[in-house]
Every structure is written in structure tokens, then in C-alpha cells.
Amino acid sequence: MKAWLSHNLHSLGIALERMRSAPLATLFTVLVIGIALSLPAGLYLALGNFKQVAGNLHSQTEISVFLKADVDAGRGRALAGRLQARPDIETAHFVDRAAGLEQLRAAGLGDITTALPANPLPHVLLLEPGEASPEGLRTLSEHLAGLPEVELVKLDADWARRLAALMRLGEDLVALLAALLGLALAAITGNTIRLQIYAQRDEIEVARLIGATDRFIRRPFLYFGALQGLAGGIAAWGLIALSLAALQGSVSLLATSYGTTYAIAALAWHEAAALLGASTLLGLAGAYFAVGHTLRGLDKA
Questions:
Q1: How far is Cα 25 from Cα 27, in angstroms, rounded to an integer?
Q2: Nearest one of 132, 125, 205, 129 to 162, comparing CA atoms
Q3: pTM
Q4: Where in the sequence is the domain holding 178, given as residue range(s)?
Q5: Quick one: 104 and 236 in the same domain?
Q6: What is the pLDDT of residues 92-139, one digit of tens each?
Q7: How far apart are CA 237 and CA 52, in angstroms?
Q8: Is residue 136 part of a domain?
Q9: Predicted confidence band at 185 (pLDDT cuts at 50, 70, 90)?
């Protein structure tokens, strides 16, 4: 165990020395990796913020329930009370036919309403659902339509379906972009390792002659790839943080114009840890395949 730890610390030191010996090349490589990682991570964060904003839209969704003509105000209010107790309904407001007629008159239709022999409007329930998902709204509407007191249920759920479809499309695009740029990260790391191996070809041959195994030769390059991926992940995290700081002023100004406030949500600690872990693993994977392929090529040369 002590020998294994000593060998790994030695390999880690070699990897750090290689990064230190070429600071400019290392810096540019880390920045390229950071930019490549920040794109899918930034889109993921933007999608999460959009979901948070969209989740507040359920308060703007209203279901109009028109009661049958023979349902009096007492039954309508009792139905509103029962619906108010449902967990999927936040508020249930009863509007009697007289109040509805007054609203028509206030809207400038007084001449028409005066000419009517009687009030033709039904009692109405205005419901605010507890969730805005298309499935939840559809299930709630079907339940309301089946009530004996209900004549008609009016709900415009097209926006909810479109929003859900856009969110699914955004998630698919983020996953596709993450996969493509992850492959690019592994390729960048692998190409850097390959160039290092060719530059140190003579050293590797000498090490083999004195008994060094491929595992011993490979280990410093693996540490180099992992460290490069980790540094790229940290760079991506920093780029995202800087971008959020730059956008917060514009977002606050936009939110103020709508009479509200909004603070952009940053990456949570577990999301940041996942970003750093993924970048490290991708760097390690790129280094592993590049070292194996290049060493086999040296054997054939």
C-alpha cells in the first residue's frame, strides 16, 4: 500500500511539473475545455431558471366552470367550498349571475343587457389550479366536467402543452450538446497527451529498456489528463459565474418592468460537483485511450 501510494504521488508530481513547464499551452487548453463545458452547463442552468419562472405561471391559469341553469347560488357556493378543499385547486371563487351581468355592463354592454328580459347568465366558478402541467389540467377538467352541477368547463391549456414540449426539446438539446462537447473535451485531452508522448518518445524507450512497464509509463499521463479536465471544469464554473454576474443587471431590469424581482439561480453545490467530476472523468478517459493507442503505435514503429 505504501509503495502504491508512493508511485501515485510520484506520478502526480510528474503531471503537475509537466503542466507547470508549459504554462501558456496549459492555460489555453484549460480555457478551451472550460468554454466547451460552459456551453452545455450554461444552457442547463438557463433551462433550470426558465423552469423556475414557468413554475410560477400556474397562478395565471384559470378554469371557468359554468353551472347549469337550475343550479341556485346556494348549491354553487357549496360546490365552490368542496372544490376549494381539493389539493389540486388553490382557490375556488363563486360568481353569481347578477355579478356576471354587472361585469358585462361595466365592460360597456349596458345597452344590450338592459334590453334582455331576464338575466341569461349562469353562475360561474373561477378556479385556480394548483399545478400547470398539461396532464394535471386535463385530469382536473375531466373531473369538473363530470360533476352534476356543471354545464361547461372552459380551459385554454394549449400554452401549457406548448411550454411542456419546449421544455422537453430544451432538455434534449442540452443532453445532445453535452454529449458532443464531452467527446470534444476527451479528444482535446487525448490529442494533448498524444503530442506529449511523441515529444518524450526517447525517454519512454529508455524507461522501457530499464524495465518500466506500460502501466508505470501511462500513470503520469492519466494524472495529467485528469488534472487538465478538472482545471477545465473549474474554468467552466468560473465562466458561468461571471456570465451570471454580467446578466443579473439586465434580468433585474426586465423583472422590474413587469413589477417583480428575480435573481438568477446559480449552480447548486451538487451540480457544480457533477460538473467537476464529469470534466475530470472525461479528461481521464481521453488520456487513457490516447496513451493506449499511442503506445501501441510506438511498439509497431
A1: 5
A2: 132
A3: 0.64
A4: 2-56+161-300
A5: no
A6: 888 887 765 566 555 555 455 455 555 657 788 888 887 666 677 778
A7: 21
A8: no
A9: confident
